[in-house]
Amino acid sequence: MTTPTWGEPAGPLTSAEFGAATQAIMTNIEQVIEGKSATVRLAVAVLLAEGHLLIEDVPGVGKTKLAKALARSIDCSVRRIQFTPDLLPSDVTGVSVYNQETRDFEFKPGAVFANLVVGDEINRASPKTQSALLECMEERQVTVDGTTYELQAPFMVVATQNPIEMEGTYPLPEAQRDRFTARIAMGYPDPRAELAMLSGHGDHDPLNDLRAVADAALVRRLIETVRHVHAADAVQQYAIALVTATREAPEIRLGASPRCTLQLLRTAKAVAALEGRDYVLPDDLQTLAVPVLAHRIIPTADAQLNRRTTDAIVSEIVHRLPLPHDRARNPYDTRDGRTSYESRGR
Amino acid sequence: MTGRRRLGLVAAGATLLAAAPLSAIFDSWTWLLQSLLTVLLIAGAAVGARTLRFPTWAQILCMIVGLALALTWIFPSGKEILIPQPATFAHFADLIRQAGEDTRSYGVPVPDRDGLHFVTVLGIGAVAILVDVLTAVFRRPALAGLPMLAIYSIPVAVYLDSVPVIPFIIGAAGYMWLLVADNVDRVRRFGRRFTGDGRDVDVWEPSPLAAAGRRMGVLGVLVAVLLPLAVPTVSGGLLSRWTQSGGGVGPGIGGGGGGRINLFAALSGQLNQTATVNLIKVTTNEPEPFYLRFAVADALTTNGFSNESPRGPSLAEGLPDPRQAASQANFAQFRAEVEVSDALRQSMVPLYTYPAEVRDLEGNWSYDPGQQVLFSGRSTTGEQKYSFTYQRARYNRSQLRTAQPLDRDDPLRKYTEAPDDPSVENLVARLIRNEDSEYDKVRAIYESFSAKNGFRYDVATESSGNATDIASFLKNKVGYCQQYAAAMAWMVRAAGIPARVAFGFTRGTAVGNGTYQITNKNAHAWTEVYLDGFGWVPFDATPAAGVAGSTRTAWAQDVDRPEPTASASAGPTGPDTESSAAPTVPQRPEQGNDGGGALAGDGVVPDDGSWMGAMIAGGVALVIALLLIPAMRRALLRRRRHSATTGLTATAVPDGDPGPAGTVTDIVVTSDSVRARADAHAAWDELIDTMIDFRVPVDPTETPRHTAQRLIRETELAGDASEAATLLGTAEERARYARRPLQGAELVTAIGRVRSGVARSATFRTRMQALLLPPSVLLNWRLALGEWSTRTAEAMTRMRDSLSRFSPRRLLSRAR
């Protein structure tokens, strides 16, 4: 098992190479998931942003299919964990087993020792088991019996879950949720996509036809390319402003963490790169605000009573927050620091 | 409904209080009694109507009926029994007409006149109904202030200078009462008010909003006090009383009103003052002006001469042509400027006779053509500065001699009425027995007042001015101008020739350049005699030696100077007597001075007109220029944004400066990129301003890309314009966020395309506004103003905070 580490220099790709590679991955996935290009793009963006993806939706909309299609498209080690209520932490991380022959304890790696870990129905496991993922997701390492094992790069957890209102689910702890870069919802397909799905799935599972179009090394180079995307000061300020706004909003009890800021910007870079840009736009942050921020915040009891979803709260913050400007460099701006149309209401 | 009934009563009370300022107009309090009855009747009608739950219109009708009944009972025509009849209303119309006459003939305070009372009661009743309806029916007590203000305005309109303050305070208190009562009622309708600690709030306990109310009140008072100061024509009242020096000799003749004043008393008052006070400074281009004149006493009874209240049309209607009054005289036009000091506050304006045009006189003035008096009911001459042109009548003795006696039924015959006094009649008969012409009779009487004849001037003479006193003056022959003037007027009347006493000032002391300084010692009275065809001809019988600044006319020369008198009487037709009131004026009289342009004084008139035109044109141009400032500012801004961004220094930084953690901050900073960024920003600012100009909403939370897309969507841009908008969005986006800005793009043309595209979809009105009054500029100014005021407020707060460090209260709380 080759274990390339994260710091290994792989060298960024050119814009054209990057575009071709990512387009191949996305087209591949879309063979299975029809009419969900935005969701697929976001999933790929999270992969390139070195993040973890949480797919939350009602049963039967293709969560697991998306996760598996993503895994199949990349030629790398893939493990799947079916989270069941009786799953134990050691099933996830691995366990030391006494070897009669060597008369010693031998570490049997768990399911997380892979490039891509598909955690299905993650919220059906008990919080005890879920918390086994905490260390590996953030630190990309596993510590069992005092020994720390590094995980491979890239490492991505793609988890699916049903909304917590569904029966037989345990809500994910905040710490766990915070480790997922983005939470996406599949949503129902539109009638045309559903029709295509019916004809496509009629005789065989298209997932079986899927071939890998990228390997771990390529993904590492893609990630390296994303790291070089430029984020202007104004964009960084905007990211901070967005996250700060969730901490200050009156309807939110727990705002987003600094880790969230980091992941937001990283994902924005990935999205920018996927669109063929080498710079981040505030538009990217605005599109990512709901997927990246909404699952981390906890609304106040009042907001919950008013049936305000976190998605609604976050998108309202986006619509409320003025864009920061870096106009100091503009010698033609006769107004002072706060430009006039910034302070204008809608 | 109880609340409404109570409010109705409060409205009635407030109306009565608001009527308090009328007390300044009436002599007695009858009007108040009548108004009280009327208002009570109206309020009673309203309460009754409300108790019976009448609809609104019926309530109003009830009140009107109440008013009609009250008027009928208070002002009965005598033909009705309690209920008004057609005859009653005819009587009312009569009363109103009568009131109209009364307002013209009476000065304030007016005596009890039925007409005036009727109008007053009618007005107060109408106000009472209005206030009641506004307060109790429509619940808008603040609006009820307007009809109450109507009552307020009456005394202010009548008196210009001095209105008593107390009644106004009473009226204001009535209004306050109304507002408070309504507010209390409003709050009570919600139930009980109680404080946080569970106890009921007293009605008069200050509300938490009291501080805000106080602030607004202070602001309102400040504005009300300061605003009139900024308006140049408003003067008077408390402030000017403070700012004017309170010294001087107090009110002059007839201060405060155009009513009947005792001119003789005022004259002797002026003359007997120990101090010499400068009253008037007059500058004229007439070489030898005759006296300034302001009043006449033309009624002679056993009480002596007295004046009738002058009456006549407003000065604004122009002055009569003197040629009608003195058809046979020649006229020359002159011009005079008069400056009246504060010490002379009278309601009649000193003028030279036959004024043709009076200018710059503040206040409402009317001219009595008969008395030739310019008077006012409420304005005074104090501190006035005015100018006037006047026609000086010229005639010589031979002309005057042609004057014929008046017809027996001539209306001017009333100026020959005199009390019966045999001694005077005998004296006159003796004096004129040898004279034929009217003029010669007057001359004979005039010349009898000579020192030779034993007359002696003495200003210290005590005299009440009545008929006996005048008669006794003719016997003891000691007196001053008022006795001389009155005695001569009486004697001329006794000769059957109209005469009257004129009041004014002698010429005064010449101070050069045609300017004369007139003091209280120059106050004077003389006789005016009506000679048919020549009008009122002045004769000053007072010895010239006794009066400072005295002057004599050719037709009535000084009787105490023997030589000219002798020659004058010797050769009445001689050429030297062909003189006039102004002897040094060229002899050829300018006849028919209609085209007065030949005279020096008129040179200014056309100038004035052209100045006026120029000023109006200038004002209009200024207003237009002011209105165009925003548009010009917008155009300048656009030009500056479009202009090339030359002269920018670029700070070249090596590309690709790798950060420590592998991040690369390789922002390209070359002169080109700096310029491209600046261009993009300028173009974007221009686009945003264009959007504001054309009323496309601007959202600060939107990214440039979104803004451009929305602009395309909302204004339905197509083709070039759409591409241009996208290009501008991309350029700005890259200038702001990318490593390399968009270079070489035609942003100026793009702006032009977007602008025309947006303009196409806008309405005509929006387009015109964007062109003439660009909202972007106005918005910027408003924002700047707002920012400035915020900053000022912050500074004030900081200052207050630092000052509160020294507040003794702080020490107190610390000590506790």
UniProtKB/TrEMBL annotation, chain A:
CDD domains from the UniProt entry: AAA
Keyword Calcium: no
Domain ChlI/MoxR AAA lid: 245-317
Keyword ATP-binding: yes
Domain ATPase AAA-3: 52-181
Coiled coil: none
Family label: Belongs to the MoxR family.
Name of protein: MoxR family ATPase
UniProtKB/TrEMBL annotation, chain B:
Residue ranges with Polar residues bias: 566-582
Superkingdom of origin organism: Bacteria
Region annotation Disordered: where it falls in the sequence: 303-323, 551-604
Descriptive protein name: Transglutaminase domain-containing protein
Domain Transglutaminase-like: 473-543
Keyword Transmembrane helix: yes
Pfam families cross-referenced by the UniProt entry: DUF4129, TgpA_N, Transglut_core
Keywords: Membrane, Transmembrane, Transmembrane helix
Transmembrane intervals: 29-49, 56-75, 115-135, 142-160, 166-184, 218-239, 611-631
